[in-house]
Each structure stands twice: as structure tokens, then as C-alpha cells.
Amino acid sequence: MDDTVVGALRVLDLVGVFANAMLGAVIARSARLDPLGSATLAVMSGLGGGMIRDVLLQHGPPVALTDYAYVPTALAAAFAVYLVKIEGPIWNRVWPYVDALALGCWAAAGAQKALAVGLGWLPAVLLGAVTAVGGGFTRDVVLRRVPTILGGNTLYATCALLAGAVMVLFFELGMPVVGSVVATLVGGALCLLARWQQWTLPQSDEWSALGAARARLARGNRRGGSKRRGSERRGPGDEGDGGAAVPRG
């Protein structure tokens, strides 16, 4: 690979490692884990996706085991989070951007690395998504939680797939470095937009017409029951909107 491409891959990987390791350490702190547990969860979250990708590529040992910058980067993120209490309104505003940046970086890096070793567009897109979500998936399994990417949340893995597709397009156009930047921005922007607009994939009972009809009927029954209960609470002369009793003055 060209030295510029290798350098871009390394930068993307390390940015993703730090961001994901920091998120893992924040979750470890909320779970009241000790320093060793915090470091373990941060390393798992920060390096898991890249190591899964490298094992699947079978193109030498995982880079996290050969490049000594990776593990210290993850540990530095864990150490910073353990020392500084990262929570509150400021963190709640910053965290979505950190998460989106990590997703975009790793989706681009995973797809670019797959293309660089000679794989086609489909495995490149898939490995970009695996790189982006693998660490978080492993972290959630260790904490005995249903992985967040499996449903009930705003679009995440879908954004990684689209970022990987953008990386493939620019790689085919002969602009891998520009593609890595654009794919990172696209993946991050889509993740933020999905969170802002509350975009989710349909639940299993909404895939069929019958399931959708049942869901609408259930929502209608809940509204009707709420209105009936509200009308029962109103007394003579009371006026209200939507079933809420409004006492007279």
C-alpha cells in the first residue's frame, strides 16, 4: 500500500480506538467497575472491532498486537475517564459527537483496509460495519446486555454500512485518502441525524401488513381508553381537552 494510505489508515484507526475506548470506560464507570475492569472494558470496546476485522482478513496478526500505539491509546482513554468524572449536561451534549466520530472513522478504516488487501466492494462494506460496531457489541455481551445494534435504537450499523459504501466509491475513483475523510464525515453525520430525527428500523411486528394493522389498532385502543377514563373523571360543568379534567374557577 501507498505510504499515504497507510498513514491515513493508522490515524483513522487510532482516533476510533480512543473514542470507543472512552465510551467503554464511561460505561464501565456507570457500572461501578474497578480500575482493572474499566481498563479491560475500554480496551475491549476500543480494540474489539479492529481485531475482529484483522482476524477475518487473515492478512497477518491484528495491528493492535503489532503496533504499540494501539493499546496505550485505549488505556489513556480509560485513565482519563477514570480520573475525570465525565458526566452531566456537557457530556450528554458531547457524547453523541464522540460516538458518531468513532463510527465514521472505523467504518472508513475497515472498508479501506479490506479494499487495500484486494477484497471486493461487498466484503469491504461489511468489514467496515464490523469494525465500527464490533467493539461495542463485545462490550455489551460482556456486560450481559442485549447489544444496542440489534434493535430498539436509532440507526447505527446502517450508518456504518453507508459510510463503508462511500469509502468503496472513492477508492474505486482512485482517491482513498479523500474517501476516508468523506466517509468518516458521512457516517458521523448520518449517525447524528438518525439520533436527532429518531430514525429506527421497523420492529418485527411491523414488517407485515397484518402486524402494522394490529399496531395501529392497539394504539387506537390505548387512545380510546385514555379518553374514556378522562371523561369518567370529569364532573358536571367541567371542560377539558383530551380527557383531562379541568376544574371550574
Description:
The protein has 249 residues and is mainly α. The protein is built from nine helices and no strands. The longest helix is centred in the N-terminal third of the chain and has 28 residues, at 3-30. The model is unreliable at 230-249 (pLDDT under 50).
Task: List the SSEs and their pairings.
Elements lengths: L2 H28 L4 H23 L5 H4 L3 H14 L5 H28 L4 H22 L14 H16 L3 H22 L11 H25 L16
Helix pairs in contact: 1-2, 1-4, 1-5, 2-4, 2-6, 5-6, 5-7, 5-8, 6-7, 7-8
Give the overall form.
Answer: globular
Strand content: under 5%
Helix percent reads over 70%
Gyration radius, to the nearest Å? 23 Å
Distance between the termini: 79 Å
Please summarize the sheet with the most strands: none
Quick check: average pLDDT? 80
Would you tell me the structural class of the helices and strands?
mainly alpha
SSE order: HHHHHHHHH
Oligomer: single chain
Helix count equals: 9
What is the β-strand count? 0
Q: What are the low-pLDDT stretches, counting only 5+ consecutive residues below 50?
A: 230-249
Key terms for this structure?
disordered C terminus, mainly alpha, globular, 249 residues
Short description:
This protein has 249 residues and is mainly α. The chain has nine helices and no strands.
